[in-house]
Amino acid sequence: MIKSLDAITYNLSILDERNHKVNTALSTKEALEYGSDDSIKYSYIISLQGDINSYSSIQDNITLSKAFNSSSDSALKEAKDVTDEIIAKLIEANTDTTADEDREVIATELEDSKNVLLSLANTKVNGQYLFSGINTDTKPFVTDSVTGQTSYQSDNSTKTLNVEKATYVSQGVNGIDAFYYENAAVGSTDTFTFSANEKILDPEGNEWQLIDSGGGVYELYLNGDTSSTPISVTDNGDGTFTATNSTSSTLSVQHSIFDALDEVIAALKLQDTDGNTISSAAARDLISTGIDNIKSAYDSQNIAHSTVGSRTAAINTYNDVVSSKLTNLKSLEEEYAGADLTALAIESKALENTYTALYSTINRMNNMSLVNFLS
Length: 375
Fold this sequence. Notes:
- The protein is 56% helix and 17% strand.
- It has helices at 2-28, 39-93, 100-121, 175-179, 257-268, 280-337, 341-367, 370-374, and strands at 124-125, 128-129, 141-143, 150-152, 160-164, 167-170, 180-186, 191-195, 199-201, 207-214, 217-222, 231-235, 240-244, 251-256.
- Strands 7-14-9-10-11-12-13-8 form an 8-stranded antiparallel sheet. Strands 1-2 form a two-stranded antiparallel ribbon.
- The relative contact order is 0.14.
């Protein structure tokens, strides 16, 4: 009888342990209470949850990027509209029937248009400037309070976005892409003249930056790295510099739309950019050149706008892929980590019946006596 009681006590402890796990699973709806319950399954579940966390973070970043993408698209569309209006006004100003006084009125209108373009170029969304490349906390364009010249403060980098594990894609465009145009293409060994406010790029997008090496000696350094071999520069003393392309690549001299506007606005006022008076004929020549330059700037804006569109489309495609992966991962997590509630309910009822039978046996044993056993 003692052996029977020991066996019953042992079976009862097993039932208690299993009943605890069943009730815990029913409560938490999780298949495993501890990793030791099934180490292989537990490791797989942990791996799934890690992937879910990673892709959820990626999806959150993509979602947050939508405002940046849509604002970039809107800003460039508006910039193109403003630039198109500028071209129309310049064409009007360059007709024989337009008087010098009317050209001055158009000059004032273009100054307003320039300010609108500058505001668009410095658009900021969620604390990030749209056209500063990776330097989203740097205001891209600043106007000098003395000279009135507008210059680009960032570099030729491109902002990127994490769209997959260890995968980044380009997002938006920088200020050079959107508000500069090619003023000259310089072949290897060719000599060229440029201003301090122009950008000089190689085919890979690296920038040759003008740096004062000391004592008024200027040189062009690749991406501003003064430890690299420079391109020698001659200071012309009039705000321009001359250099010979000593690289094996064709260099692109990029001119700002803001500088082009300054030049044409001055011409409309019968002045050069230094404020000196010029003739009507000279002004007409400068206006004609200005029209061509602003048209080139518009073409660059068009390309930049298209680039933003294609990059945004790529991001949206990745977003669909990430969403699909998250759905599949969560389904797998539910399959492996989630408790089978139906099976648990059936087992719980079976345990209840087993408990009833076992306690009934215990009760009968407790009621047994030597007299009953002998009779």
